[in-house]
Amino acid sequence: MMSVRGWMPALLCVAAALAGPVRAADEPSAARKELVQKVIQLHQGAIENVGRGLAETPVAAMMQRAGPVLQERFPADKREAVAKQIQADAKKYVDETAPMLRDRALKLAPSTMGPIFEQQFSDDDLRTLIAWLESPVSRKYSALGPELQKGLIDKVVAETRGTVEPRLQALERSVARRLGLEPKNSKPDGAASAPARK
């Protein structure tokens, strides 16, 4: 009978044989690195959009939250002026912040996206991907992306507004109540106004 010491090296040899050939420290070749750089270059527009999106997304959420507050707390004759001031502040923030985030995204893309492309794609995969990204069909498809997305978003919003808005408003009231931000003149859902006492 073989001892543990005797079968352990044999087991390791079998495991190594089953694992297949080992690449030299998993270091990608210069050719693969060049292909990956080309893929990243072809994704430059999408990478820039990541930076812009990071600047615009919180502003859009903030603007949505500001709308009901404007309606509740400002008289009709002052709402438009305050809304324009808020929009100007938001635009200034995006104009100042988006370029910084875009530049950072472009700088970090090779070190974050590059290793993933190097590990997940073969050289042939990368060449195929590059051919697709450079093709007129890909460019046409990419150009349609915003239009396709907007069309779908508009339709979903239009068809669900009546269901979603009341739920969202109920959630906003609940959150405001829990935070102690409930407006003085608001009443719980379904509560009728009490007659004024004299």
Automatic annotation (TrEMBL):
It comes from the Bacteria. The keyword Chloroplast does not apply. Residues 175-198 are annotated as: Disordered. Keywords: Signal. Residues 1-24 form the signal peptide. InterPro entries: DUF2059. Residues 113-152 form the DUF2059 domain. This is DUF2059 domain-containing protein. It comes from Sphaerotilus hippei.
